[in-house]
Amino acid sequence: MEYRNLGRTGVPVSVICLGCMNFGGATPEDESIKIIDYALDHGVNFLDTANVYSRGISEQIVGKALKGKRDSVFLATKVHGRMDDDDIMAAGNSRRHIIEQCEASLKRLQVDHVDLYQIHRPQSDMPIDETLRALDDLIRAGKVRYVGTSSFTAWQLVESLWAAKELGLNRFVSEQPPYHLLDRSIERELIPMAQTYGIGILPWSPLARGFLSGKYRRGDDIPGDSRFGQDSNNRNPMFQNRLQQHFGDLAYNVLDVVEALAEEKGCTAAQVAMAWLIHQPGVTSPIVGPRTMAHFEDNLGAVDVEITDEDRARLDDVSTPEEAIASYYNGRMMDFKPAQHRW
Prior knowledge:
Blueprint: E1 3-5, E2 12-14, E3 17-19, H1 29-41, E4 46-48, H2 57-65, E5 74-79, H3 95-109, E6 114-119, H4 128-140, E7 144-150, H5 154-167, E8 172-176, H6 190-197, E9 200-201, H7 227-231, H8 237-246, H9 249-265, H10 269-278, E10 287-288, H11 293-300, H12 309-318
Parallel strand pairs: 3-4, 3-10, 4-5, 5-6, 6-7, 7-8, 8-9
Antiparallel strand pairs: 1-2
């Protein structure tokens, strides 16, 4: 296993981060614990979960799996999503919600601190100093070591860095953006910004929701039990648009090259897509979200796959740098509404 420092922190984390989103949901507890044990045995020291994953069950499972092993793990969780359908205050990036949910996460995880506490989504009507002050208090109380973000834009992160400097607060050290061969939008601004300011990049959905694993074939019907099959029943225009983007010729042209490289290297398509991402400039650790042990074993194999300059050029021909075939990153800002009084 290879290790890299997380941004400017100096903390070495494995180049693959085990994402625990499926644990307690699609993945039963016993298999979830086996996957975590397997990850630790194979050098993965970075686990990422969130309070909203199965409404706390994922955190509970992670806590059980880490009993007696906590000190060898860099443990990350997230806050923002709704945790109570009947409580309008049980969501968002306010001080109240952040501190309340940090305490709840610590109890579920059975730990006295988390290494990385992340804001799961930006909140456009919440001034960033409200969020940063709450996170800073948690760090000073010893309940959190570092803080990060997920799905923030470059300008939102720069605003947060400015606010932290102005107010003397601890700053964000990492960002989780969507990033894969079908969406390279973050290469335009987010990656250069992160490299400039020492922010670790932890890509989520490295296989574009499984598309880059090769499980979907050009011209075939989408399996009804797949994530995309479920999306096909959703009338939300965002989901319908994403389906059209994923299953168009441009996306399949990328998959054709990925599969050709996989055949040449004697590995799987998913491993080629993961290996490409692991070695992209600015990337610290892609977050894999296995549903089964077989998925995770395949994910880990990407560490041993070499991607040459020639391979990158072939992929660039069908996956244009800085552009998106299926929009994940830019779509996150469609509902942005500026706060009336940011400062």
